[in-house]
Amino acid sequence: MPQAILINDADPSRGFFRITSVLTWINLLHAEGALRDALSVSRRMQRFGDTYQNEKLETKVAALNEEVR
Fold it and tell me: What are the E-state strand segments in the chain?
């Protein structure tokens, strides 16, 4: 059975749950072409210590912004 949330076993003092479906959500946004939204979610998750595809998304959004100019 898949886990919907995980406790940070490596450092329980941090006291947060990791929502495992966030990566799936980001991947769906990416697949639909909503790169800015995917990057926004990824950045929000950084405050919890997670970096979901952050560099890859930043590179793609930067390229997209250059095309617009």
Answer: 5-7, 17-19
Tokens read off for 4? 């919907």
Q: How far apart are CA 54 and CA 46, in angstroms?
A: 9
Supply the angle between the helices 35-45 and 21-31 in degrees, to the nearest 10: 160
* pLDDT string in tens for the chain (69-residue length): 455 666 666 765 665 566 778 888 999 999 999 999 999 998 888 877 777 777 888 999 999 999 987
Per-residue burial over 10-24, b if 16 or more Cβ lie within 10 Å, else e, is eeeeeeeebbeebbe
